[in-house]
Amino acid sequence: MTPSEDRAVRLPHLTGARAPLTRTVDVVDEFGRASQVSIPAERDLTVYVDKRELVTLMTLGGHPEWLVLGYLRNQRLVGGLDEIESITVDWDVGAASVKTRHGIDRIEERTARRVVTTGCGQGSVFGSLMDEIDKVCLPPEAGLRQSQLYGLVDAIRLKESTYKSAGSVHACALFRGAELLLFVEDVGRHNAVDTIAGWMWLQDAVAPGSMVGEDKVFYTTGRLTSEMVIKSAQMGVPVVVSRSGITEMGLEVARRVGLCAIGRATHKRFLCFANPQRLHWDAMPAVPAARSHTLDAL
Amino acid sequence: MTPSEDRAVRLPHLTGARAPLTRTVDVVDEFGRASQVSIPAERDLTVYVDKRELVTLMTLGGHPEWLVLGYLRNQRLVGGLDEIESITVDWDVGAASVKTRHGIDRIEERTARRVVTTGCGQGSVFGSLMDEIDKVCLPPEAGLRQSQLYGLVDAIRLKESTYKSAGSVHACALFRGAELLLFVEDVGRHNAVDTIAGWMWLQDAVAPGSMVGEDKVFYTTGRLTSEMVIKSAQMGVPVVVSRSGITEMGLEVARRVGLCAIGRATHKRFLCFANPQRLHWDAMPAVPAARSHTLDAL
User: Fold this and answer.
1) Pick among A21, A23, A26, A27 to test the B interface (most B CBs inside 10 A)
2) Which of A28, A75, A109, A263 has the fewest CB atoms within 10 Å of its CB?
3) pTM value?
4) Which value does ipTM take for this structure?
């Protein structure tokens, strides 16, 4: 390799495989009436690395190449984008063929340990993710304004989505303040996160520094599980927002890494579960006379 | 072994490990007010089979012994209850120690293949589950009355639950008609199903034939994924009901095995996605003048 080649960004070649995201199916309702509704697509995508079968992902199929890229990264199988020559997705056979430049070292051994996590499986590296947690350093001053939080919740509410037309999918999104950068849905929530991770990796290669995490916010419709919080922290994103609640391990990890975890975010309401000092209260609603969070409302 | 021992039902010895299901945590709401809410517990339970580490499950911890039993069964690692001598759960160390009578044959090989499924992971046997699907035979006449469906939806609505007090858990339940037999919640939905499977296995050993599936209904708060449908079919349960929707693979499997799949079940409303002939319309509501299922309502 010459010095000039060494400095150049070598992006992997990616196909742009597309497939329908919803499907119309026949149903019968409570009145015995036949009608039709949309349901999300769900495809199996078997990932081969240098012709060796690695894993089968069940996915909506919106961005399979970014998904595979993010999967490889988040499973810590690939350290640099330039290690991957190409990712070729062929929906006819449900296969994603990854070609690396030099192979993946000790791939057998590194994919051996399994943990079934709450956050929808894929936990093979959970143990080592936890080991890495203490290396994460989120800038103490990074945070979010309450007005931006309301802006991003509103952006999600207005987004056209597979969920609105067919239900049964999770959504994740990446924001810069209240600005929506990427919105991804999938039948498996972990796939949505991995897809965002893959996209960020590519963006960062094209415009180095653009995907620094500290001004970003990670949104998910699902619960804030340990897996979601860990992945957010590893992307360097200091704030996570969810429409749902938080799990105990999700909370523990958020506290440990100093990540601001906001749940139950709908309209103007939310609960900050960890590190509220990252939230700047510039849009506090007037406290209503007799209204408070009750457990029923959760 | 003497002939009499051979005929006796040898139940595994199970501990009855207990741990709190919720935890109170500090939060800050949208008015900047500090308060407290409950969140579900989430514990890691590492399963050892004959002192060999098998998997780590993240669980609420309600019924860890049934969970481990159901996990071993649903992963097809154990064929008969009498193969297991004991399951000892110790929450202090987060361990479930399974002692078998004669070891598990080829355990390394049989836990090697991984599939990340939509239905919250744990898909190591997904491939072989699909292979087994065609062996499933659900009695053609088995079904559910609409009045029973409404009864079971109501029973779920009225059930005291961790969800009501703390949110963020999935529930599964087993019904005989409208009679609730077992209600299980967990942070991971697959855990709830496995727990029910483990319980059914024990019940069937104590009262052989009591857990035949054909008069049972399987309820889940989560989506009807392929994994949920497959597991229901394997328990011989011909009807699944969900508050949520269905995924494409879930629908395909339901059609393939002739399972009645009912989704969006709340109050008197529902959509039957597959095999509506199993549903007996004895409680059909009057059709309102101008009301129909719209996608928005899904």
Assistant:
1) A27
2) A109
3) 0.84
4) 0.82
